[in-house]
Amino acid sequence: QVQLVESGGGLVQAGGSLRLSCAASGRSLGTYNMGWFRRAPGKDRDFVAFISSSGESTSYADSVKGRFTISRDNAKNTVYLQMNSLKPEDTAVYYCAVRSWDSTWRDWGQGTQVTVSS
Question: Residue 7: is its pLDDT beyond 90?
Fold first, then answer.
């Protein structure tokens, strides 16, 4: 099992930027595909971005494509989410998770709050 801790959230004005970090302990992240998700108030948790274990493959939800960038530094055991051109509708708690061998998501972190004011 991997312990994940998200950080980097905060309050930002529309158009601003934030970089979220997902730091792992317990195991090396280097062999795991990883993802970012978010849960807006009153809504289900939604997929945001995916990155393969090597970092060579990424994918994004349509709502963030062109604005968000997922990356990783396996030497630092950390996955990042660079968020630019933020919109009020990006307000949510952001979570990272490990993609399991059976394509389910597990080892969720506690989340970090992102609030975008208009």
Answer: yes
DSSP readout, 88-117? GGG-EEEEEEEEPTTS-EE-----EEEEEE
> 19 vs 28, 89, 105, CA distance in Å?
22, 17, 22
Mind listing the pLDDT tens digit for each residue in 43-86?
999 999 999 999 999 999 999 999 999 999 999 999 999 999 99
Q: Could you give the strand order of the β-sheet that contains 78-83, starting from the edge strand earlier in sequence?
A: 3-7, 18-25, 78-83, 68-73
Residues 85/15, Cβ–Cβ less than 8 Å: yes
Give the number of residues written for the chain: 118
Q: 26 falls in which pLDDT band (50, 70, 90)? A: confident
24 vs 98: CA distance, rounded Å? 10
Could you tell me which of 78, 37, 59, 77 has the C-alpha nearest to residue 69? 59
